[in-house]
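Hi support team,

I'm filing this because I wasn't sure whether my run with guanosine-5'-diphosphate finished correctly. The job status page said complete, but I'd like someone to confirm that the output block is well-formed before I use it downstream. Pasting the exact inputs I used:
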Amino acid sequence: MSKNVVIIGTQWGDEGKGKVVDLITDKAKCVVRFQGGHNAGHTLVINGKKTVLHLIPSGILRDNVQCMIGHGVVLSLPALMKEMRELEDAGVNAKDRLKISHGCPLILPHHIALDSAREIKRGKSAIGTTGNGIGPAYEDKVARRGLKVADLLDERLFAEKLREVMDYHNFALKLYYNHKEANFQETFDEAMMQAEVVRPMICDVTAEIHNMIANNENILFEGAQGALLDIDQGTYPFVTSSNTTSGGAVTGSGAGVLDMDEVVGIVKAYTTRVGGGPFPTELIYDMATDTGDAIGKELGTVGHEFGATTGRQRRCGWLDIVTLKRSLKLNSVSSICLTKLDVLDNIDTIKICIAYELDGTQTINPPFTSEGYERAKPVYIEMPGWKTSTIGTKSYDALPKNAQDYIKKIEELTEVSIDIISTGPDRDETLVLKHPFN
Ligand code: GDP
Ligand code: IMO
Ligand code: MG
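And here is everything the job wrote out:
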């Protein structure tokens, strides 16, 4: 029996999706990305060698795996070219195994200019985007004026549509934002050059998926970002502009709701967030001045918590069961993969947030707004740490008793079973108790 598995981040991204997708792709025919763009940074470590992927699905390092970019992804051609070149330099031929949906909206230079202009205008309330033009590209899609990959195939029509949309955005860039405009001719020439490279990869990804399903092949759907960054369900407006939740795997790929057999939710053993927005369990630490919370510093240092895309310091804090439980429900998570357990190895007492105190009352429900989240004070339970290295532990029984108790407590609080435990960045440093494709 074939299976289709969705993998999503359950927190604010960077849970370790890339590592897990690569790992369990040993049993998949194909990996499909279905939302986001090159705002994602997915890190794979194989025998100590690190690869960071942004747009290309995390199955690409396995020779026999097909990779597809579904129409839910906003595509930057320069970012794709760069990533393919880097893979080629490392001896991986992405071109032959990568297919791109004709329906992907294109990220163009005016989107990047708008992203930056909007962030500058927001000032102190900036979202802290990756600056990659993600939001403005999705806006153009929803506004029904965006250019798609298929438009690259007709030079005359492409020029016509591009001129119209650029006139519109350049007007705002110049007169509203007082920002440098994007140049039509440069944009057009560059896009046409890159179109030649991607032309052979463009196809009807939806039809390819339907064929694979008909042929009983296993497909893995790879999410980007995390559920708390979802445009509809996240901590709005401090979110990304796509549906990062498992429903996005359907709308962004063309598979049907009933085609999905399992949803693996990646849960970091603590919480991180990069960019602005509320974070109730944050242990505030500033690396630039080396001031703030000592455990916040420990998590960030031991966990190497720096953005894989922008290099920014990630904010760190305790595991938050309030947002996690909501996230598991939103995504129909059927199985948890717990990552970065080893990062807690040296901590004396570990806290888990089980409720919020909000405006004088205790609640287990997420607040309605970002302002509500800002006022929410976490209510914690405490667990003793294990003070032993768990890196690369080879069996569940070999994990320290207190680490087993921490895992069991998360299962008890979330009512979802933890089937994969990651104790290091390397592909090998993982305990697969139950393989999602089995
Ligand atoms: P993604 O965006 O969800 O794919 O995650 P990122 O790659 O942005 O961030 C996860 C980081 O943690 C990467 O540097 C990984 O190499 C690393 N990582 C993943 N799993 C583990 C783990 O279990 N332990 C440790 N120490 N690092 C891990
Ligand atoms: P992966 O797939 C963590 C955050 C940005 C910002 C907000 C909006 O590696 O988990 P955007 O550029 O998307 O408009 O920025 O979303 N963000 C991420 N944070 N991991 C990511 O991807 C992210 N992609 C976007 O920092 O707060
Ligand atoms: Mg990442």
